[in-house]
Amino acid sequence: MSFLHPSLRARMTLAVTCLILVLMVITGLVSLAFFEREYERSMTEQQSSVVRYLAGDVDATLTNIQEALLVNAQSLPDNILRNPQAAQEYLSSRTGLRRFFKNHLHLYGADGHLIATSAQHHHDISESIAGQPYFKQTIQQAKPVISDPTVHGHTKGSANIVFTAPVKDPDGHVVAVMTGSFNLYEKNPLSRYVTITLGKSGILRLISGNGQVLLHAKNARILQDVAQGAGPLVEKALRDGTATGRHFGMSNQVLIASLQRLKSVNWVLAASYPEEEVYARVATARHWFIVATLAGMAIAVVLVLVMMRLLTRPLSQLATHVATLPEKTGDARFIHLPVNGEIGNLTGAFNSMVQEIDQSTLALRNSEQRYRIVTEFTNDFTYWRRPDGSFEFISPACLEVTGYSREELFAQPSLMEEMIHPADRPMVDQMAAESGDPTNCNHEEIEYRIITKGGSTRWVRHNCRPIIDDNGTFLGRRGCRSDITERKQLADQVSHMVLHDLLTGLPNRSLFADRLFLATAQKDRNDRELTVVLFFGIDRFKLINDTLGHETGDRLLIMIAERLRKLLHPNDTLCRFGGDVFAFILPGRESRHEAVTMSYRILASLSDPFNPTGQQVTLSGSIGIAICPQDGSDAETLQKNAETAMYDAKRSGKNCFRFYAREMNAQAAEMLRLDNSMPLGLANGDFYLHYQPQLDLKNDTVIAVEALLRWRHPELGMIPPDRFIPLAEDSGFIIKLGEWVLRTACMQCAEWQKNGPAPLRIAINVSGRQFSEPDFVDMVAAALSDSGLAPELLELELTESLLISNEQQALQKLQLLKNMGIFLAIDDFGTGYSSLAYLKHFPLDRLKIDKSFINDILSDPDDAAITEAIIAMGHSLKLKVIAEGVETREQLVFLEDRSCDEIQGYFLSKPLSEHDLHVFVTARLANKAVEESSH
């Protein structure tokens, strides 16, 4: 037999021998370790018992001393505090106490100054312990205190333990403190404990709460810190009451220590044994144990060698066949030995086994291939748990779903339950409880969250089924966790998108309706509270949107939403109702005043300019308020009434709020009727123009007219412009209406140019919506071309706010119009952002002073001063200045004296039809000719 290729017998012999040797070694080591551990435990318990007993004795000693001092303090006569001599005699007579306190007794006032002492020598009455922690604690808590070591006292340089007892007056106030102390370096009531020896060289130590040695067999160790290795044990004893463990002593000797915290004071009593002393007996036992184990191992080896030789000889041929079996195929895999008996039976059983193995191997290989395809190529985490909860099988997908590997789950099966999200755990536990039988997990699919190993939260769908064999035996549970996080997130996103505005993220109209319904339902249960609904619309937002672009408008809406969010209470709701309209639900309000306050806060939030694209934009808004139940008890009515109030606020001048009133419905209906009638009115010719003359004061000549739009409704009669113009602007119909005015006026002026008494320039008002249209310049050019009107006879009047809303765009359009030869004027000058900056910047020809200043120029000094300033400003920029709304001669004289260039108003003429204007101009020209001929 080759040493490098041992026989089966040799290998079996070696294997069995090694196994027995290993088992004997393990058994020996385990037994020895168990013996040593039990011995150490026994010694430690014994040591801990001794320390607990001694700690109780130390506690009793300290308590007796403290109670004795307290009894004497309580029996102190009331008047003795005012008589130091009597106090000293009282303290000197306390012979029972003085056997505890070698440093005498002392009595201190509540201010900490010494009153008396039991010592006979002279004492300093100015001595004070007011700063000592134990004195402060006694005064504050009115209870006895045992101090940590202190050098304060009459024995300088000593380490004293001070006992205090409060002296109280009949009302329970501390009026004095009695103290007694002893020196740790001298014999004292606790000295006897350090003389106790434990074993041969074990010692006791008393340790303070800050880790200083209070009592030790060696005085040199007193007030020294404990050995560095003992610090954690002291901290544990102070925290838990007791501690046991090893640590290095001051001489680097390993000590086994037991510590017990005292009950009367935050100190620790510690007992320490040298480890070598404790294990001296263990070392002897270990020696003999090893000798016995080695002898047994030698005997076992000999017995194995003999027995294996006898048993394995008949099996050599079978062993050789088994060794080469993997290389054999077909019939060669079966062995044929001419033997009977047990070896023959073994040979037959072996052949049957080979046949079954071959069949099982083939089936298993096919099954494994199918199972590998199922488990390795699926994203679901499948498992099989035994009845005790451990795992029989875990699929590879567990890592992807949970973050835990199969090895981690096999080692700690409880992770399956621990990873369930705390918020969903009650639901999972309830389903488990409802099943009643822990072996029954045949529940429906359940969806809940888990916390993966990485800390992320994922949604899973979990189903579980019991595994029962044919005999009804419960074999465990098989289950599957599928990751449905993405599907959940998608569903949440879809749900959020359905109920929220995509631009601002605010609740949309649908969610607003649901919450308003809930708010009104809750209102029914609490009649004392009000539910307030506010509709808030941005003023002139369509103009801003058209002027600055929709992208800028969207950014503005987002910025507005952010400001409005900051105004909400926790239970309030803010939604974007649509376009530039936001809506609030304010439940639980106590009065209308809170709605007013909220409205002012909303308007104030828009007062600071916005800067969406580097250009400041100033906004205002209009608010409508409806209150439940006064203005409606259902969501639909409240919503409709709040919106009606908002539009009333817009008609009232904007940048304000209005409470809903019943008459608003009639007004809103009328506005809706007018709004719907305008397109039909324009098609039917119900709109027409009147013309108001403008007079050159220098030449006393009518030089221009302003085209003014009028509407005669077939059923409602004449509709004032201030009623239908705002409606047209809000609806956008002003664009089509403005184009009609421009074309009609140009055609009429062209007719005057050909056949009229004199060529007149015609002035046309341009709205902000109309001017912001991209093709506005082209529309003007087309009107001039189609009518044949000379461009210098057309004047366009624009407002200040229109020009500064987007200066760059306005400048480009004005320059194109100016290049065509058209006159450009600022209408209602003085009411907006009047400044020299944009007057110099834009190619203007005329300023038109707003009639609100002209009305009171004779009675209001401020209006008069503003009018003079506008005239002077216009002339300084070489602009013509025209005053509108002139109704009296006195106003005319005032303007002439200030060198105003032109006037317009009822003093000259009211707005006239085309025919009346022709008569008026002809008459003026005739009168002027007569006057000139007479001169």
UniProtKB/TrEMBL annotation:
The chain crosses the membrane at residues 12-35, 288-311. Residues 444-496 form the PAC domain. Keywords: Membrane, Transmembrane, Transmembrane helix. Residues 367-430 form the PAS domain. It comes from the Bacteria. Residues 529-662 form the GGDEF domain. Residues 309-362 form the HAMP domain. One of its GO terms (biological process) is signal transduction. GO terms for cellular component: membrane. Residues 671-925 form the EAL domain. NCBIfam families: GGDEF, sensory_box. This is PAS domain S-box-containing protein/diguanylate cyclase (GGDEF) domain-containing protein.
